């Protein structure tokens, strides 16, 4: 049985917030009314970092953009590793451990 998705803590599940006297789409759940997954939150934060640093004429811009790319590549590799472990027919201790660690880093499923 799947755990029900928690309501967004910013808009309390309504999908809207009131700003400047008018309702607006909640910036944290994008109007969905439920908390976003960890992967979605990470990707949105990475995009925000990219956008902030692309516009800034700082020396660190190239380094930050490189680091964001490296994080995306590493997360994609972990997703592929997790998928291979999930599809594997043998249930060895090593396979379970790798799958558990990849899930722990990615936050795909709730740990029991």
State which percent range the strand residues make up.
5-15%
Distance between the termini: 13 Å
Number of domains: 2
Mean pLDDT: 85
Instruction: State the shape.
Output: flat
Rg result: 18 Å
Structural class determined from secondary elements: mainly alpha
Strand order of the largest sheet: 1-2
**Sheet with the most strands?**
2 strands, antiparallel
| Tally of strands | 2
Query: How many DSSP H or I helices?
Result: 3
Secondary-structure map:
Layout (H helix, E strand, L loop, with lengths): L15 E4 L2 E4 L12 H17 L6 H27 L5 H14 L6
Antiparallel strand pairs: 1-2
Helix pairs in contact: 1-2, 2-3
Throw out a few tags for this protein.
112 residues, mainly alpha
Structure report:
Helix 1 packs antiparallel against helix 2 (61-87) and helix 2 packs antiparallel against helix 3 (93-106). The protein has three helices and two strands; from the N terminus they run ββααα. Strand 1 (16-19) and strand 2 form a beta hairpin. It folds into two domains: 1-36, no CATH class; 37-106, no CATH class. Strands 1-2 form a two-stranded antiparallel sheet. The mean pLDDT is 85. With 112 residues, it is mostly helical.
């Amino acid at each position: 049985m799947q755990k029900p998705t928690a309501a967004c803590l910013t808009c309390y599940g309504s999908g809207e917030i009131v700003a400047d006297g008018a309702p607006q789409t909640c910036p944290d759940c994008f109007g969905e009314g439920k908390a976003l997954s960890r992967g979605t939150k990470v990707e949105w934060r990475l995009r925000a970092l990219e956008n902030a640093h692309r516009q800034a004429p700082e020396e660190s811009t190239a380094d930050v953009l490189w680091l964001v790319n490296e994080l995306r590549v590493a997360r994609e590799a972990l997703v592929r590793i997790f998928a291979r472990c999930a599809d594997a027919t043998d249930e060895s201790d090593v396979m379970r451990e790798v799958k558990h660690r990849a899930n722990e880093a990615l936050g795909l499923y709730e740990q029991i």
